[in-house]
Every structure is written in C-alpha cells, then in structure tokens.
From TrEMBL:
Span of the signal peptide: none
Record-given protein name: ABC transporter family protein
Pfam families from the UniProt entry: ABC_tran
Domain ABC transporter: 5-198
The entry's keywords: ATP-binding, Nucleotide-binding
SUPFAM superfamilies given in the database record: P-loop containing nucleoside triphosphate hydrolases
Entry keyword annotation includes Signal: no
InterPro entries (UniProt xref): AAA+_ATPase, ABC_transporter-like_ATP-bd, P-loop_NTPase
Gene Ontology molecular function: ATP binding; ATP hydrolysis activity
Originating species: Halospina denitrificans
Record field: transmembrane: none
C-alpha cells in the first residue's frame, strides 16, 4: 500500500510550524546545522518526541493508532541503531538474500552475534532489518554516516531502488549536498526555527 506522509502544523522544540507532504516513493531530504533539530523532528514524526500538531499516513493520524503500531508503519532508523537480541537474525523479518547481497553481506551474517558488528555493518544491517519488517514509510537519520565511499554508494543505490519500487514516502536527514542532489525529490533545510524549502 502506498500512501502520503503528511506533517500538519508540527512543532518540535523550537522548530515549527512544519507542514509538508511526502508522496509515495518520494524522498524529502532535511539538512541543517548540527543541533538544529533534524533528529528531533524525525523522532516526533515517529511519535518518540513530545510535539504539537499532527502526522498522518494517508488519512490515518498517528493518534488513531497505538504507538507501537504507528512505529511499525512509520519506521525510524536512527543514525545509531539499537540491538537488543544477541544475534542479527532475531531482529529481522523474513530473510531477503538479494538485499543482503546488495548490501555486501553473505546470508551467514544473520547468524553473527551483534557484538562482532562494526559500526558500518550495524548501520547497513539496521537498514536491512527495517525493510524486512515492511514499514509503509521510512524516517532515515543520516543512513550512510558511518560508511566509506564505496559502501555509501552501494547503500544509497539500494535504498533508492527499494524506496522507488515500494512507493514508501521517506524523510532522509543528510548533510552531504552531493548526496542530497542524488537522492532528493525535495530538499528542506532548518534555518533558525523554520524548515525552509531549498
Ligand atoms: N528531549 C530534549 N529536550 C530538550 N532539548 C533536546 C532534547 N533532545 C535534544 N535536544 C536538543 O535539541 C537540539 C536538536 O537536537 P537534534 O538531535 O535534533 O539535532 P540535529 O539537528 O539532529 O543535530 P546533528 O546534526 O548534530 O545530529 C540540540 O540542541 C539538543 O541538545
């Protein structure tokens, strides 16, 4: 199911009002100085941060669902992922061998203990994990921040393909202007307390 993600008069901390829509398969990039409120904004969309205003997926406001149902549909992938089970497989939905390969892993990675993962491996597997859980919208907080150039390109291409083919509306926090140019359907920047279209 492909739906529009809408932010309606959202206020988070000192940032707002933010009203915008992300259509199916669109990637809306958010940039801004360190500490300007990008991560808090994503967390508010995931209903993990106190805020005013509304967030809707299609016609359904977040307030109509339990927090866990909303977060399963509108999934935040933070820049530093949390891992609460011992093994990678226990975190993931049904195995997607092609996706693992596209991200540079053999299927055996699913049997690895989380404790052996590097920060870049964690970041790539957090994206894999999220997509195996079939969310309807994605909130990506600097999804390639811990990756070298080759891995960044690989992950970026994979994300673009998956987002386009699945039609998931996506908010993507990014710093790199070249990456924004490559992936964004629209680009907004936090300037002072406002989110401005670039
Ligand atoms: N729960 C909170 N209550 C009050 N202030 C907070 C809270 N959480 C974060 N902040 C502050 O809000 C500001 C924005 O934080 P946020 O993590 O959203 O920044 P950011 O734009 O994502 O920065 P970076 O690019 O460095 O990751 C920071 O000054 C931070 O200290």
């Amino acid at each position: 199911m492909t739906q529009t993600l809408s932010l309606d008069n959202l206020h988070v901390g000192e940032v707002g009002p933010v009203s915008l829509q992300v259509g199916p398969g669109e990637i809306l990039c958010i940039s801004g100085p360190s500490g300007s409120g990008k991560s808090r904004l994503l967390r508010a969309v995931a209903d993990l941060e106190p805020h005013e205003g509304r967030v809707l997926l299609g016609d359904t406001p977040a307030s109509d669902l339990s927090a866990s149902d909303w977060r399963r549909r509108v999934m935040l992938i933070p820049s530093e992922s949390r891992w609460w089970h011992d093994h990678v497989r226990d975190h993931c939905g049904p195995e997607q061998t092609e996706d693992l390969k596209a991200l540079g892993f053999e299927p055996s990675v699913l049997d690895w203990p989380v404790s052996r993962l590097s920060s870049g491996e964690k970041q790539r597997l957090a994206l894999y994990r999220a997509l195996t859980l079939a969310p309807e919208a994605l909130l990506l907080d600097e999804p390639t921040a811990n990756l070298d150039g080759t891995n960044r390109d690989q992950v970026e291409r994979w994300l673009l393909e998956r987002i386009r083919e699945s039609g998931r509306p996506t908010l993507w926090v990014a710093h790199d202007p070249e990456q924004i140019q490559r992936v964004a359907s629209a680009h907004y920047r936090i300037h002072g307390h406002q989110l401005e279209r670039v």
